[in-house]
Structure formats: structure tokens, C-alpha cells
Design goal:
The protein is built from 4 helices and 11 strands. By secondary structure, it is of the alpha+beta class.
Length: 259
């Protein structure tokens, strides 16, 4: 999980980023009958063939652990985005100004915990960057977290999907902007990466009414990639997600496959 604010103007919040058999051939035998031996045949013995070391399967070496520097290289660059985008400077800091969510509904506890955390549970290394398409957006936030294995990525995606499905409303607080209830709704995710999940958060009333965030998370081998888009059209979300996954696959040497 990740949290950030795109800018005070758009009151943007980034929530959650949350893992052949070879058949033997029979030897042909002659149909000519063998002559009956005139004496008791001498028994023969055969020496079993010893198996060679090459016949024993070996365990492939484990991949080296991802580093934050490696993940940072896999993030989108301005050259990967349409003209007009710029990199948003990191204004982060432990100054108590973080965007937060809360809920009195126990069914939302998991999603609240994920949303308010800095990184997903189990993350081994992380990198992130924010981009702005202008004063009115779209605003895009990307994070990549190394989970250690594809299985861990699948488990995180499953947990995220379950957390979204269990929760319907939360309360969003943006320092300097106010507090509003937000609806939680799973939406169709771009079909890139592995086990993609998308969710839309919409402020339904109060000072943030109308504010909308769409987040997409998907797996790329042993890393989970999360993209959050504010003030973006469907084509913005699809295009940014596809570009981010392709970039991560190329840089990280990941398998280029869909779901």
C-alpha cells in the first residue's frame, strides 16, 4: 500500500498497492523361432547401468533479490508518456499531512489498513513516482513493489480484491481540503500483467464531493505494479497501465504475458 497526494488543487489521494514424459520405444523382435538348446543354457548376468549425474534434475538457482534502484529504473519515464506530462516532485515527509481513510464498518478494516500503509505487506523493495498532465490533470501515480515471488504477488492481489469486495464506503480526509465519505467500487481492469484488479473511489458528498480516483494493480512476475489515476479518462487509465507494464517487463526481464 501506498498513499500520496497528487496536489492540493486536485485533492488527490493514492490508496493501496496492495503473486513431459518421454515414452520408451519397444525393440522389434524376430519372428523366426530360436532353436531349442541341446543342453541346459548357461545363465547370464547383466550389470545395471549406473545413472549419470546429468540424469538427476537440478534445482535452478534463485533469482537475485530486487533492489529499489532496479525498480526505479522500471518506472515510467516522461518519454513513455504522452506530450504535456511532467514529473511531480516528492513533497512527502512525516509532517502529519498525509491523506488518510477510515471506517466504522469492520468489513472495511482490511482495506483501511492497506490504504493507510506506506507499502504492501511483504514488500521487499519499493519505488514510486508521480506525474502530472497539467493543471487539470490527469494525475498519475505509479509504484512498483518487489514481493519476492510470483506466488506472493498472487496472494497480495487476491487479498486486495477481497478487501475491495468487502467494503462499500469509507471516509477520506485530505488535509487542507476536508473530509468526505467515499464509495468503493471494483471496476473492469486493463487486461495486462497478471491478476489485474481495478477499483474506483468516489467522494459522494461534503467538501470533496465529485472527487474520483481509479487504481489499477497487477502482477509482473515477482513484483506488483500499482497505478492511480486522478481526473483521467478510461483511455488514460488503459494507456498508462499498458505502458507501465511493458516498461516493467522490459527492464526487469519479466515474462511478457497477459492474464
Amino acid at each position: 500500500m501506498i498513499k500520496s497526494v497528487c496536489s492540493a488543487a486536485c485533492a488527490a489521494v493514492v490508496m493501496l498497492a496492495l503473486s513431459g514424459c518421454s515414452g520408451g520405444s519397444e525393440t522389434a523382435t524376430s519372428t523366426t523361432p530360436s532353436p531349442v538348446p541341446s543342453s541346459t543354457p548357461t545363465p547370464t548376468t547383466s550389470t545395471p547401468t549406473a545413472s549419470t549425474p546429468s540424469a538427476v534434475p537440478s534445482t535452478p538457482p534463485a533469482k537475485p533479490a530486487r533492489t529499489a534502484a532496479q525498480l526505479a529504473k522500471a518506472l515510467l519515464a516522461l518519454a513513455d508518456l504522452p506530450p504535456g506530462f511532467s514529473v511531480e516532485k516528492d513533497e512527502g515527509g512525516d509532517d502529519g499531512s498525509d491523506v488518510t481513510v477510515s471506517s466504522k464498518d469492520s468489513r472495511c478494516a482490511k482495506l483501511v489498513a492497506f490504504s493507510n500503509a506506506d507499502n504492501p505487506p511483504g514488500s521487499k523493495a519499493s519505488a514510486g513516482q508521480s506525474y502530472s498532465g497539467g493543471a487539470q490533470g490527469p494525475f498519475v501515480d505509479e509504484t512498483i513493489d518487489a514481493m519476492g515471488s510470483p506466488a506472493a504477488v498472487r496472494a497480495l492481489q487476491k487479498s486486495f480484491k477481497q478487501a475491495v469486495a468487502a467494503c462499500r464506503t469509507m471516509t477520506l480526509k485530505v488535509p487542507g481540503e476536508g473530509t468526505s465519505p467515499i464509495s468503493v467500487r471494483e471496476v473492469a481492469a486493463p487486461q495486462v500483467g497478471a491478476d489485474p484488479v481495478a477499483v474506483r473511489f468516489t467522494a459522494t458528498s461534503g467538501p470533496l464531493e465529485g472527487f474520483e480516483v481509479t487504481m489499477v494493480t497487477t502482477g509482473v512476475d515477482d513484483v506488483v505494479l500499482a497505478l492511480t489515476v486522478v481526473n483521467g479518462l478510461p483511455e488514460d487509465i488503459d494507456g498508462a497501465t499498458s505502458a507501465a507494464v511493458e516498461k516493467a517487463q522490459d527492464v526487469l526481464g519479466a515474462t511478457k504475458s497477459g492474464t
